[in-house]
Amino acid sequence: MSTRNASPLIGIVTVLYRSDSVLPDFFKSLAAQRDANFKLYVIDNSEKDTGCVISSELAALHGLNADIVFNNENVGVARGNNQGIEMALGNGCDYVLLANNDTDFPDADVIAGLVRHTERASALAAVPKITYHGTNRIWCAGGRFSPLTATTPHVGDRKEDRGQFDEEMFTEYAPTCFMLLHKSIFKTIGMMDEKYFVYYDDSDFVWRMRHAGIGLLYVPTSSVAHKVAVSTGGNESPFSLFYTARNRVYFSRKHLAPVHRAIAIAYAIVTLTLKCVKFSPAARSSVFKGLKAGFSLSIADH
User: Fold this and answer.
1) Which domains does the chain have, with CATH numbers?
2) What pTM did the predictor assign?
């Protein structure tokens, strides 16, 4: 529980968007944690404040220390995370844990174990093993950047977990679905790039970490289950397709070397255009609008 005296202090940041249905499991998982000294920061990007109400009730029910902010509009995941990060750092947190609320982690040692292994390895950032919720299949056991395609393949995706991904190691990439970050990281590389709004904001952040020499530790003894794409309507909704297309182009323009950039953007255009055959007219329109928008965004400085 967060009320126990322990150190370091962890600021857990979660961004809500139409998240009401997943909150009971998320709060129950937090309440189950042992030896983890944390404060919760809930940032609600939903149109209605029902998520805030539910979060307040669940925090009281489980005795969790929580600050809850209602934005009254969808300002994007990156900005919501930045709001929570700034609050956590302002309150003296030693670590920030970015945590999707569509995660479930009933093992009582997930958070404390993540911190313990991070400090033993003299690391500044760490991620757990993540499975698809309700299955024994891997969603992410670390990952890598593919500069020729501007994609971030997950290690082990959809494979049955038979213990083959149980070696602790530094990994090139992982999403910020459940990521522990030492406070010093934000001084070194800055905050999340809010221009992404949603998708690729974590790729951008981890890319900047990597290029600043900050290793990302994969800790398989901590395990989290992810209810994938609960709040965005799935990976092929018009919303998801627009931001995926837009942000692949933006990420490529921002970070990739000229040859890799040209190949990655061409790859994105060709593959997304081919996929459009099976999409609805609204979804197809979203893809092409997203690709066009990716070229018009100005590159953010950090």
Assistant:
1) 9-226 (3.90.550.60), 238-296 (no CATH)
2) 0.94
